[in-house]
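INPUT
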Amino acid sequence: MGLHVEKRQLVAPGEIVAEGGYFAGENVYRENDKIFASRLGLLEVVGNRVHVVPIKGCYIPYIGDPVIGRIDDVGMSGWSVDINAPYPALLPASETFGHRQPFPKADLTKMFDVGDLVLAKVIAFDRTRDPLITVKGPELGKATSGRIVKISPTKIPRLIGRKGSMISTLKKQTGCQIMVGQNGIVLVSGKSPEGERVAVSAIYMIEREAHTRGLTDRIQEMIRKELGGEEFVSGKAP
Amino acid sequence: MFQEKRPERLIDLNGSRLDGRKLDQLRQIKLEVGVLDKANGSAYVEQGKNRILVAVYGPREAHPKHIALPDRAVVRCRYHMAPFSTEERKSPAPSRREMELSKVIREALEPAILSENYPRTTIDIFIEVLQSDGGSRCAAINGASLALADAGIPMKSLVSACAVGKIEGQIALDLSDLEDKYGEADMPIALMTSFNKITLVQMDGSLTLEEFAKAVDMAVDSCNQIHEMQKTALKGEYLMIKEEVEEKEGSEGAGE
Amino acid sequence: MSSTPQRSPMARIEQRSIVDMISHGKRIDGRSLTDYRDLKIEVGIIEKANGSAQVFLGKTKVMVGVKVETGDPFPDTPNEGILTVNAELVPLASPSFEAGPPDENSIELARVVDRGVRESKAIDLEQLCVEPSKKVFVVFVDIYVLDHDGNLIDASAIASLAALLNARMSNYEIKDGEVIFRPGYRPLPIKNRPITVTLAKIGNSLVVDPCLEEEQVMSARLTAAIDESGRVCAMQKGGVEGLTIEELKAAVQIISKKANVIREKISEAAR
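OUTPUT
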């Protein structure tokens, strides 16, 4: 009875993780009295709920998620956007600012054209239709510069950190603006190419070591070694 | 390139087979996960002389759209052999055998995949046999389970597979190419190990009911052995990263 | 029928930063304009094939298997063995590859690699004749792309040459027009080692060994095969834009220099 596996242990699909009085959360499933892992990842237990934090996986949209996407196509009344999910997202023209109805296609192309990068938010999604996104909102809209980093969406929570601790450390220490999409796309924009380069390295390092302890310290250490000093602002000597 | 001669005996007086194995011994198996860059999940399997690469893409948008199902993912599977994988060069065009194997392998894996989680998408499994040596469909299934897990596709269970056959009147595990060719029966079996459910069984040859029962038990036993190897392979890379990191911390004297 | 390809799935700002960096002499992975990515060559991994090689060029992975069998000669070359090169862009290797018969890209790939081997007379096909007009040896070179991160042509050509150098055929003698195999092995009759180098035109610069993102941004591509004596023996231009005459000449100069470096690496690996 009880837990078959210790907390924060790596479990494989089909492994039995708990039995008896436990509830099944994400990435586990229940069969009769037993709970099994359905994905490779770390077992977490909160009270009597067990779930698995997966190592890898695709992005499934959730309402309210900030996402970064690329315009794929311009349609009659909106744009089709690739948000790195198994479903293409739709950005209706009505979800942008300053538009008059009806929407002439030429206007749409002027606003966002194929290949443009947009910072958006998911406003609708369910099993029967493709996700809907909006660019109405502060800090949303077309991105005009920066480097794009693509990591596994399952690592985004680790990149953000508890109450945003990891991502603020990164921003401060590298002097870069970093926009994080829940869909695994990250936009890094800094005044200095060095800062950008180190920020990108740090993001990949977090992705690789997300399942280990003491990561925040190691990241801070790494950035300090590369850029020197507590806050890296271009122009200041290391 | 040489003419192949039928070996005089498949089992010698000590009960050893041509490659030195006992009747109930598996060939050496090597499993590697995450070997390809572009695929969402991948695995590489060596079993005997089999060299098999498996990639998984998905869940991804269905192309063409009309094949999509409204309430679950469509699982597609392609088993394909490289022209240089067999003694005689094989044409790259899909053969009837490859088409049949694509189907039975898909049916072996599908019950384990929680495809209801991803309606209107496809999950694609591509198997490439770079060198074939008997039992390739089982090795392919073992690799495909790993590739699916590596891609983060939710599964009820891993699927493990193994073949059992009969050579010179004796039940033998994991037949090689030669043994399959000159033996009396071959039966590949795949097992959804967490539930002991058989998702693939094929057989050709001739077995008595008793021999059949014995063979099934032997196969299921091996499938469970292989299951342990699969779990080790899956966790391996991440445990290694964990160790690496802990070693570095230890040597620098930093605490947790 | 050949049609204009789909536009590449890359955000405009990414494309711009690649072009910008290159105009300043740097590439996204830190290489110089004329550097190859890390190159690793393994030979002999497929025992059932007469010869085999696997090439890791950056993240691109290509495997080549060589099989030698007997067959009928072509009527116009009754004294020569046959070389046939085939390439498979299997769906395993890239989200953009589909299952099915070879498309124009895989056929072009096979024919460009073939051209380099054939025009440099790398294999002495006359030595592969068993009985004129009746029977010859056929050398099958099968290119299998396993992971597409750009520059499949060079990776395939390197793997093909390494596999041919690695290949062994059974010793044989000819008796009454039949092939009788004898114990032992011999290498294939290789007389030349052509090396294929591909450049991409990005902005106004030419870069060696484009990775996948660079291929998605390039306006044109030039491949040339150089043989051991430094002669150009095959060439192929690809892409939807043009090259200036100066660019073409400059490209061939660059290619000529890089070929020797690559040839060394292959000879090392295939030893």
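end of record. The radius of gyration of chain B is 20 Å.
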